[in-house]
Amino acid sequence: MGFSHFTSLCRYSPTVCRVAFYTLLLRFNLAAVQQQLLFMYRQKKQSSGLLISGSMVSKKYTADDAIATLTRSKKKHYWYIIIGIVLLLPVGWYWLRSSPAVYFSYPLGISPELAASFGEVRKDHFHMGLDLRTKGRENFPVYAIADGFISRIQISEKGFGKAVFVTHPNGITSVYAHLNRFSNDLEKHIHQQQYQQQQWEQDISFPKDRFPVQKGDLIARSGNTGTSEGPHLHLELRNTLTGKSINPQTAGFAVPDNVHPVIKNIYWYNKQGSIYETNATRLTFTTASDQTVEVSSPYIVLGIETFDKSAETRFQLGIYKATLYMDDLLMHHLSMDELADNDTRYVNAGIDYKEYVASRKTIQLLTTLPGNKLALFSRSPANGVLDIHDQKAHYIRIEIQDAAGNISSIAFYIRFNGIKQASMSYPHNVVFIPAGKDTILQQGQTMLHISKNTLFDRVPVFITTTNTSRKNTASPCIDIYPFTTPVYDSLEITIPTTLSKEDTLRKHVVMLAQTSTGRSVVKGTWNNNTMTGRLPGFGTVQMVIDTIPPSIALMNPRNARFPSDDGVVRVVCKDNLGNIAAFRATIDGNWAAFERKGNVFTYQPDEYCRAGVHDLTITASDIAGNITSQTFTIIR
Predict the structure, then answer these.
(1) Is 602 in a helix, a strand, or coil?
(2) What tens digit of pLDDT does each residue of 288-346 get?
(3) For the packed helices 14-44 and 2-12, what is the interaxial angle rounded to 10 degrees?
(4) pLDDT tens across 233-267, in order?
(5) Distance CA 401, CA 335 (A)
(6) Which of 26, 132, 455, 596 has the CA that lies 20 to 30 A from 496?
């Protein structure tokens, strides 16, 4: 670390560094010569006086004279040390300032407390930063954690909600998300942009000199915007060059922690086939002294239910590292150091997805599946598959580490008992699709396309078709099994319709899907008598006719005066099938900047709404294209 920081300083102050370096080098060389001469003369000095060669010989110096002269010279050269230290003080200060341990400060004016850590498993994604608690409240001041400049802001209904990006000179960009509002200057600039574009959602980049900040400057207020489920501050550190999110706790943003991770349960899986052709079996130990377990498969993989704890929080946090050894040989290693945006769907390749969907239990697989391309998993020849077919007892050790370096471990012996586990049974039309293979399945006019990047391991896929007479349906009901199959890419499906080509209801047809990720509404593309759309995963899908427009309700009393208690106008828009596709609000015919969280839209009266009586008009549409509009009278 010191050398890289020294070279960085040399780029800015090369003369100072060279002078200081050579000054100290000269001083230490002269001192070494002096000490050697003094040592030699003190060893060889005689009572009659020994003369020194060179200039001292010509002056007929005795050994005592030489020692006195060299001692005075030694005192003189102490000035070299003083001058060198003074010149190198900036280097030391730069090292201190650039040290990861002190470069970043805490962004909130309260005691550090984590609600979530980097790399935690979330629904279909990794958690890419730290969640910092705000005591269950909003509007805490948010400060820049280091010098830099505001390079970007985002405003969105989903994801981060409102977010600020600050680029720092050390090659890292810090991201602050789920904010309530920005600093005054920034807020004013964004507000103008929104009205100029008549668009609430924004993604704006700024040049280096537009919004410079220093460490500790107020940049925003904390909140609960976007997909946040409660007030907190989400903090990320990103590599400015690559855009990858890096683990803040190993990149200088340390949070005090002396609590070891918790290992809750160990599971094994039959790996004679695919991980998706077996179920988890929990390992049980008969006694504390007998740590040998038997399993009914010659080839297995292990999974671990584990989490981290911190003294400052009651939350269960994600782990940093997991390492598996068999007979003291490394079999698998996981290290949560950095993640890219396109890595996040691989989260389901690293867990027992079936258990996660069924019970929200997170079992980390100690293996790298064939379709898992994440670099944070080790690529050993065995990929975590344990070969125990010899029926001998093999020594297993698992280590779990958190970002603060606290380690927990468990060790035991495992043995194949010689009795193979029975295979699962499947219907006659099952197709075993391996990871990495582009596949098209067809059943009548129903066609399913699974791209080569979709699956993580071999999956036994089969399709059933059921004709229904339910009202407002426009196709058979299609079931794609297994429902609990995780995917990286979406699936493309083509379904035949029961509507005639001339039926005017076709323009109101959407695909309604129910998958492990929840309900989704898809506006597909017509091709004669079939519709094609993309599904987020395996499950049930059917074409339905949606002619019902969204509903609009003013949460404030109709014709009420505002500002009310908190000075905000609230409107709720709901659809019978899914989310609102489009929303627009005008006051007296002029666009108004309503914010959105889910189906709730809010407006804080601004300079574009003067005192008096106004007409508030709300227009909303759904994915099927149904539009509704309502006008309310409001008084300011």
Answers:
(1) strand
(2) 556 889 999 999 999 999 999 887 778 899 999 999 999 999 999 999 999 998 888 89
(3) 120
(4) 999 999 999 999 999 999 888 788 889 999 999 99
(5) 9
(6) 455
